[in-house]
Write a sequence for this structure.
């Protein structure tokens, strides 16, 4: 698994806000260069991390926003065909049991 960090840095405190994992399938025209799309998506402040993965999906994004409405707005803004995204599936975090300490 190849991980691309958000260059803006995360300003969110652990376990605050609305957290989701977004599974991303890329459009065929950008499939050959997932790192390019990962870097574009990593620029958004809501994106805490982007992983390039193998399997049914090409990317996994960890997203944190202040609430569900902000998450929805982020999806409309960032996750679009213009950014090479064909489809997504979101997994909503209800509670983080073991926080990332790195």
């Amino acid at each position: 698994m190849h991980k691309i960090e958000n260059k803006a840095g995360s300003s969110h405190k652990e376990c605050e806000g609305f957290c989701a994992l977004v599974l991303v399938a890329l459009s065929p025209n950008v499939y050959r260069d997932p790192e390019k799309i990962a870097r574009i998506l990593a620029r958004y402040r809501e994106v805490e991390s982007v992983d390039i993965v193998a399997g049914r999906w090409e990317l996994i994004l960890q997203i944190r926003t202040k609430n569900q409405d902000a998450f929805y707005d982020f999806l409309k803004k960032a996750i679009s065909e213009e950014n090479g995204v064909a489809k997504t599936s979101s997994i909503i975090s209800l509670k983080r049991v073991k926080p990332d300490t790195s």
Q: What stands out?
A: The beta strands are 2-5, 18-26, 47-52, 59-65, 85-92. The chain has one domain: 2-91.
